[in-house]
Automatic annotation (TrEMBL):
O2 binds at residue 240. InterPro entries: Uricase (IPR002042). This is Uricase. Its EC number is 1.7.3.3.
Length: 293
């Protein structure tokens, strides 16, 4: 046998689809989550000896998620922290873990009391990483598709023999916003800050002239960090959903920026992390996030 040792490990139940209906009154409320629970700690013997004495079953983790939902869910970030508190206090060898959730938004149909449609374009995300006494909360969303039909351009880039792109000062800017932001505290009204960050991102997208998607992402990040002292870092991953002006000259028709061909691939992929100057990093908390953010 080669000389090996166990290094990083975590385990749990992935993608527990929990739908919590609050029906204290006839006007029901819905929270619809996809929750993943993973424990970290002393699981050495399970791997090296097949000794399951420390292995809280993934099935138990799943049951705990559903049992906790019975007491109400609240924000996904608060729910995940309750799970973290439980597993790290109940089992002495569980020293931390990673709890993640997606949340799907439901909107009332005609303001109806108990009928909804999947009304939120974006999927909300939350991650809680517990390491001993340290808790890191990362929130975000993906799938928020936005477009502005002018006030965007792209000029001043280097040109070489492979460059065919024409400079433009009037183009469509469209993207699917994926973003995650890291809090420097757990003392947060997470639902309220989520709504605020989403609104800041959308408002910033509309404002002013975009010199590039990179420029716009940076302005969104600056605005979020300026408004929210509890946020130290924000990441974006945004495809540049190209809209090419359709050349109608073949049949003698002009096209003053009105008919576009929406290409689906290839697409530019613009990704950036913007951090509050002087703030501490928590790079370990980002491990496990698929892709850039
Ligand atoms: O906003 C843009 N950023 C780029 O980096 C880029 N590259 C490109 O061809 N078009 C664009 N647009």
């Amino acid at each position: 046998m080669p000389d090996v040792k166990l290094t990083t490990n975590q385990y749990g139940k992935a993608e527990n689809r929990v739908v919590r209906v609050t029906r204290d009154t006839d006007r029901h409320e819905v929270r619809d989550l996809n929750v993943t629970s993973q424990l970290r700690g002393d699981f050495e013997a399970a791997h090296t000896e097949g000794d399951n004495g420390h292995v809280v079953p993934t099935d138990t983790q799943k049951n705990t998620v559903f049992a906790f939902a019975r007491d109400g869910v609240g924000s996904p970030e608060a729910f995940l922290q309750r799970l973290a508190d439980h597993f790290t206090s109940e089992f002495s060898w569980v020293t931390g873990g990673r709890w993640a959730a997606e949340e799907f938004g439901w909107t009332r149909i005609d303001d109806h009391d108990h009928s909804f449609y999947r009304g939120s374009p974006e999927v909300r995300t939350a991650v809680v990483v517990r390491d001993g006494d340290e808790t890191t909360v990362i929130s975000g969303f993906y799938g928020l598709t936005v477009m502005k039909t002018t006030e965007s351009g792209f000029v001043g880039y280097p040109k070489d023999k492979y460059t065919t792109l024409q400079e433009t000062t009037d183009r469509i800017l469209a993207t699917d916003i994926a973003t995650r932001w890291r809090y420097n505290t757990t003392d947060v009204d997470f639902d309220k800050v989520y709504d605020s960050v989403k609104q800041i991102i959308l408002s910033t997208f509309t404002q002013g002239y975009s010199k590039a998607l990179q420029h716009t992402l940076y302005q969104m990040a600056e605005a979020v960090i300026a408004t929210h002292p509890e946020i130290d870092e924000i990441k974006f991953s945004c495809p540049n959903k190209h809209h090419f002006l359709s050349d109608l000259s073949f049949c003698g028709i002009d096209n003053p920026g009105e008919v576009f061909y929406a290409a689906d691939r290839p697409y530019g992929l613009i990704e950036a992390t913007i951090q509050r100057a002087g703030s501490e990093t928590r790079d370990a908390a980002w491990v496990g996030i698929a892709g850039f953010c």
